[in-house]
Amino acid sequence: MNDDKTTRTTVRNITDLARLAGVSAGTVSRALAGKSLVNAKTRERIEALAREHGFRPNQMASGLRRQKTSVVGVIIPLGHDVRQQISDSFFMTLLGHLADELTHEGYDLMLRRVVPDNDPDWLDRFIGSGMIDGVIVIGQSDQFDRIEDVADGYNPMVVWGNHTEGQRHCVVGTDNRLGGRLAAERLIAAGARRLAFLGDTTAIEFAARFAGAQDAARRLGIGPIMALPTHLSPERASAEIAAHLAAHAGAIDGIFAATDTLAALCLTELRGHGFAVPEAVKLVGFDDLPIARQTVPPLTTVRQDIAAGARALVDLLLRRLAGETTESLVLPPELVVRKTA
Amino acid sequence: MNDDKTTRTTVRNITDLARLAGVSAGTVSRALAGKSLVNAKTRERIEALAREHGFRPNQMASGLRRQKTSVVGVIIPLGHDVRQQISDSFFMTLLGHLADELTHEGYDLMLRRVVPDNDPDWLDRFIGSGMIDGVIVIGQSDQFDRIEDVADGYNPMVVWGNHTEGQRHCVVGTDNRLGGRLAAERLIAAGARRLAFLGDTTAIEFAARFAGAQDAARRLGIGPIMALPTHLSPERASAEIAAHLAAHAGAIDGIFAATDTLAALCLTELRGHGFAVPEAVKLVGFDDLPIARQTVPPLTTVRQDIAAGARALVDLLLRRLAGETTESLVLPPELVVRKTA
DNA sequence: GACTCATTTGCAAACGATTGCAAGATTCCG
DNA sequence: CGGAATCTTGCAATCGTTTGCAAATGAGTC
Predict the structure, then answer these.
(1) Whose CA is nearest the C1' atom of nucleotide C13?
(2) Domain spanning B14-57, CATH architecture
């Protein structure tokens, strides 16, 4: 009387279910995994019972035994600017797309944000945890070398970031240097002659954008571009931009912002300081985030295809999980001309 | 000669390391877990070896044995508006804060976005996977009832969303109704009389904001507020807002947008249609996202304290993991007056 | 030296699912 | 009806770590 079948019997594991179904644990496992080796009727009976009791095989145990977790790690190193987290909607958007793509491929996503300065071991620790089948690193930050080290001994890793000649880790990213060139060319074509770059060049992606802009300036016979170091978090950035503007008032007539977020803030500050955009100062951003459409005037910017980037990251990672070794992928940036330059 | 100790010996598990250290697996386990039962010298030797070989205990195995994974699930149901994902920077910001808080407490974060319509079992499936110790649900979407059902049998769950009298699941969220009231009161105080609400009232949070606004209108003797259903994704929203404006041209002089994102889009459309803000039409948003500061003119809005929300979610979840049963927490919204109303 | 008591250790049984192997049950064919 | 071929199923080992229990060691006391 204590095991009336209609009573809620707690089914904690495959063995409980096996007992209920009157078969062995192995059979239940095979039935639930959808293998062909099990009789159709038996399978149905087991599936019905599983449904009825809301039973799902424990993924930890399964992962342990199969040596495969079906979880992909996504890690964001916050190296050069710890507070970027809140501001950078670019990374967050990329993350959203990654979640969609991975889900679609049957993987779960384990997210970790780390401050490499506090924890030099950040990447190995994640990989060595045994919880993930592979890892996607979002942004190289200032950790290029460490990522290179890891890449030598660990195959299923793909990185979003900048591509450098001869690097050993597989990276997906926009051609930042070309993007920087496009931005500067546009500023110059719009009439700007005294250019400045707004952003923190410690981050390798930003450095590349800056370098590209300088290439263009040099080639077109324009003087060197002034670097105006600026953090990404809105709280700090606003003040820093204001300071830059105060210091270099009339000496600038074209600004290339490392990010649309920075560009938008810069636009606000420019207005506050009484500079007309684009008449007095031209401005170009980077990313083409939704905000670029909504500023006044709307922002001329360099577009990165975030969705395509996410697709590529996942695709390459899956190939690597399957044993291939894949090449890096550099995506072309695209100049979007709106009203600020 | 094939096991020269200085040669890279692959240490795959605790047993390998035990062999190297000349002790048993159990001792290694205790040493690495920092238990007091192991001799100081032995521990040091083991730790040194572990470091040298970059060994870390497998979390899957550990989780299986201890019945505790140190992973918290974060799940985003995309019920009422599947494409909200890309746009809603509110959720993404919340997610960022959650990641920080959880990391700080020694938990990892497993992220999953689901479309409940395609998978009615979304929540049980996540919980039953055995991969997570507890779950944080971001947004109730249109899944209130299902969440209630689950809450009855599963304790370690906390939800971000709207609080309803007598509900059974533990929720953290802003007092949306009060927020809506504040917004409407501000619009009316600024002189608006014919109000509209911009947003999709299928989402329970938005419905509460709408209801709060209606309370205020009624109490102040203003006519009913017109509901203008609008999706959250920028692509669809822009067109929908334009259509609303075209249809109800002069019949509106005050708009309460369910979200700052919508408010910003609305501002752009209003400008496009030649309406002066705040002179012809007053506008109030919700959230106080960074963008609210940057629109032209800057947006009057109702602030939600996202960081505090994330802290509360994690705090309550940890308490529930420890066995407590916790009450819901309703956070007070705050009106931030800028220039649009 | 015999005794107790506290430290350290090893042993082996879990945790829950998967899977190679072999045995049992069926079917098929002559 | 015998025997081979094909399906199904059960058994038991395995994934890597943790932990209760008991044994071994060492220290301290009279």
Answers:
(1) B65
(2) Orthogonal Bundle (1.10)
In strand D, which positions have an atom below 7 A from any protein CB?
Answer: 7-12, 14-20
Minimal Cβ distance to B111: which of A57, A59, A111: A111
> Looking at the C1' of nucleotide C15, which residue has the nearest alpha carbon?
B65
Quote the CA–CA distance of B240 and B244 in Å, as a whole number: 6
Tokens 């639930």 correspond to: A32
The DSSP 8-state label assigned to residue B338 in this structure reads -
CATH match for B176-303 among 3.40.50.2300, 2.60.40.10, 3.40.50.1460, 3.40.50.1820 = 3.40.50.2300
Gap between the Cα atoms of A312 and A307, Å rounded: 9
Would you write out chain B's pLDDT as a tens digit for each of its 341 residues? Answer: 344 444 456 899 999 999 999 999 999 999 999 888 899 999 999 999 999 999 999 999 999 999 999 999 999 988 766 555 544 678 888 998 999 999 999 999 999 989 898 888 999 999 999 999 999 999 888 899 999 999 999 999 999 999 999 999 999 999 999 999 999 999 999 999 999 999 999 888 999 999 999 999 999 999 999 999 998 877 789 999 999 999 997 899 999 999 999 999 999 999 989 999 999 999 999 999 988 998 989 999 999 999 999 999 999 999 999 999 999 999 999 999 999 99
Record: contact B60-A130, CB cut-off 8 A: yes
Cα dihedral B119/B120/B123/B127 (nearest 10): -80
Of B92, B112, B268, Cβ closest to residue A96? B92
Alpha carbon distance A190, A181 (integer Å): 14
Asked whether strand C has any atom less than 7 Å from the CB of B20, the reply is: no
Q: Strand A108-114 relative to strand B108-114: parallel, antiparallel, unpaired?
A: antiparallel
Q: Nearest nt (C1') to B15 (CA)?
A: D16
The CATH H-level superfamily of B71-174+306-332 is Response regulator (3.40.50.2300)
- Looking at CA atoms only, how far is residue B129 from chain A in angstroms? 5
The shortest C-alpha distance from A221 to chain B (Å) reads: 35
